[in-house]
Design goal:
The complex is a heterodimer of chains A (326) and B (324). By secondary structure, chain A is α/β, with parallel strands linked by helices. Chain A is built from 10 helices and 7 strands. The termini of chain B are far apart. Classes of the chains: A alpha/beta (326), B alpha/beta (324).
């Protein structure tokens, strides 16, 4: 990895932290409607997974993967407009947060039925294989969603057909408030991959190097036609499930422990060891990220709100008279 | 050429797959076996294992995979081996496929067809006889069709495959081999959203679709000279051909809605309400409905017969409405 790449990865992690931090602040100020799901603490996972992907690869983010959406190439301005529910958002105000997707950048819109994008990603991977395209589909999900039938149905099929799909489980130890020991009886979610006939790998989701390495192996395998990989990234969200969740179900000690393994600080430490001018990099990066975020907020606030009757737009590709089935 | 309703479906899939290499079929046992009912017989031999895919028993996957393929420009036909099993893929239909275009602000659409054998009359019991159209009728973003004839079975399926929205195609297993008719040799389409007039009349209108079209038409014939019955076959439930319904009811002043799905919360409830609201001044009698009893699709022959609407019940309902 050259210096430019290392600094770029750092910038991306800082950008998503600044972006999400601002969104959280806007939420506290009552400027946003709907749920806000911060991925603070998980930046290395989402940035690292997307780093090696091409524009024509696809990601299927979960609700906490704003970093992945930004890393895959979504325009921060439009993403902020999406969060604001404005007309310039990807869904033009139809839904908020990461439900809008950005298809030209290979970013599929999530639904709130967690894990339900795994069959979709798997179907897409079937097409890549069918048409001999060396592209990959990457489906994110949480360890909580791993209990859903959809997740198992998808992985089973991918194993049968050796599809170029990578399942990235971001294990942050809590499904909302429910800890892992009440979710599944195996130690690692990746242990389940054996049941589908492909490799499961556990890596630290806070260590950007580990994430990059795991993804490199998985994408190489997928592009060579050798089938799916299950990557479990152990990580931690600093905030509650949503901004309205005070996360009383966990201990302060636990949070402090994980904060000591902060992915951005770990990367700063690495940059420092490389003998770069860390202080200069930090200042420059932060200023750049804050400018992008400020521009995004300004763009979103200037974007018009959709008007009521636009609720009937985009329901059908072939429109129905009156906009409703009847 | 003379074909059965089942053969018409097979022809529609074969023709669409031959016409467009992006059309494909995924379902349980659709390939080597040719489908539990032989609806897809010969397709895998002709189009290969990549395009006619034997899937695991995983309806959520089948439908979700179809969505992913559709986003990539494919046009998958997704078979539910029995339409009852569509319940296992419900989330993928109502939250994934139906919202795909909407939540992406029009960036993409979802050209999938979900089809499978629905309906009763063959002693299939609770899990092989259902008519699930009303489960989906209130979901925006979906289109729903239910053919009654071989001609429509073929023409509607071809239109459904070419439509850019998700289409639920409820074929009726009772009709598979019982309906045989002469259909054109040359290609044709039946557009979505257009009802068909199956019998012309002036005294009352029977609005129906699917398997009950046939006894309704028979009842109209049997009653000719006594009561002049108009029969409308909806063919599409969403979009619903309100123009055809309202024109006929305005003419006859009376409406009877007949369907095999259960009465409560059925498609007929919506149609009846709309007739009541929009055509009140044209009505000469109450809007009536005849449907399956509000119970599960029981197995034993006397139970099933008691539950389902049939020629006798339709005839009696017509007579009752005519008396107003």
């Amino acid at each position: 990895m050259n210096e430019q790449t290392e600094r770029d990865l750092y910038y991306r992690m800082v950008l998503v932290r600044e972006f999400e931090g601002r969104v959280s602040a806007l939420d506290k100020q009552g400027k946003l409607a709907g749920g806000v799901y911060s991925g603070r603490g998980q930046e290395a996972a989402s940035i690292g997974v997307c780093h090696g992907l091409r524009v024509d690869d696809w990601i299927f983010p979960l609700h906490r993967d704003m970093g992945a959406v930004l890393a895959k190439g979504a325009d921060p301005n439009r993403l902020m407009a999406q969060i604001f529910g404005r007309r310039d958002g990807f869904s033009k105000g139809k839904d908020s947060y990461l439900h809008g997707g950005d298809l030209p950048h290979g970013i599929f819109g999530a639904t709130s039925m967690l894990g339900s994008t795994l069959p979709v990603a798997t179907g897409m991977a079937y097409k890549f294989r069918m048409k001999n395209e060396d592209r990959v589909a990457v489906a994110f999900f949480g360890e909580g969603a791993s209990s859903r039938g959809d997740v198992h149905e998808a992985m089973n099929f991918a194993g049968v057909h050796k599809l170029p799909v990578i399942y990235v489980c971001e294990n942050n130890f809590y499904a909302y408030s429910t800890p892992n020991e009440l979710q599944f009886a195996v130690e690692n979610v990746a242990d389940r991959a054996a049941g589908y006939g492909f490799k499961g790998e556990v890596a630290s989701g806070n260590d950007l190097h580990a994430v990059l390495q795991a993804m490199q192996k998985a994408t190489d395998r997928a592009r060579r036609g050798e089938g799916p990989t299950f990557i479990e990234l152990k990580t931690y969200r600093y905030h509650g499930h949503s901004e309205h969740d005070r996360a009383a179900y966990r201990t302060d000690e636990e949070l402090v422990t994980w904060e000591s393994r902060d992915p951005i600080e770990l990367w700063e430490h690495y940059l420092d060891k490389r003998k770069y001018d860390l202080q200069a990099i930090k200042a420059e990066t932060l200023a750049r990220a804050q400018q992008v975020v400020a521009d995004a907020v300004a763009f979103a606030e200037a974007s018009p709100e959709p008007e009521g009757p636009e609720a009937m737009d985009d329901l059908y590709a072939t429109p129905i008279p009156g906009g409703s089935p009847a | 050429m003379m074909v059965t309703y089942l053969q018409a479906i097979n022809q529609a899939m074969a023709e669409e797959m031959a016409r467009d290499e992006n059309v494909m079929l995924m379902g349980e046992d659709v390939g080597v076996m040719g489908g539990a009912f032989k609806v897809s017989e010969g397709l895998q031999d002709r189009f290969g294992k990549l395009r006619v895919v034997d899937m695991p028993i995983a309806e959520s996957l089948i439908i979700g995979a179809g969505v992913g393929l559709a986003v990539q420009g494919m046009r998958p036909i997704l078979e539910m081996q029995f339409i009852d099993f569509i319940s296992c893929g419900f989330d993928q239909i109502v939250n994934q496929a139906a919202t795909l275009r909407y939540r992406h602000g029009g960036q993409t659409s979802c050209p999938i067809v979900i089809r499978g054998p629905s309906g009763a009359g063959v002693h299939g019991g609770l899990y092989h006889s259902q008519n699930p159209e009303s489960w989906f009728f209130s979901v925006p973003g979906l289109k729903i069709v239910a053919p009654a004839t071989a001609y429509d079975a073929k023409g509607l399926l071809k239109s459904a495959v070419r439509d850019d929205d998700p289409v639920l195609y409820f074929e009726h297993k009772f009709l598979y081999r019982r309906i045989k008719e002469d259909i054109p040799d040359e290609e044709y389409l039946v557009p979505l959203g257009q009802a068909a007039l199956r019998a012309e009349g002036t005294d009352l209108t029977v609005i129906t679709y699917g398997a009950t079209v046939h006894p309704a038409v028979q009842a109209a014939r049997d009653l000719a000279g006594e009561i002049s019955v108009e029969v409308i076959d909806l063919r599409s439930l969403a979009p619903l051909d309100w123009n055809a319904i309202s024109a006929s009811v305005r003419k006859t002043g009376k409406a009877l809605i007949v369907h095999e799905a259960r009465l409560t919360g059925g498609i007929g409830a919506e149609i009846a309400a709309r007739i009541g609201q929009e055509l009140f001044e044209d009505l000469d009698g109450p809007v009536m409905r005849l449907a399956s009893a509000d119970t599960h699709n029981a197995f034993a022959a006397p139970l099933e017969a008691w539950i389902l609407p049939d020629l006798h019940k339709i005839t009696e309902a017509i007579r009752k409405l005519a008396r107003y």
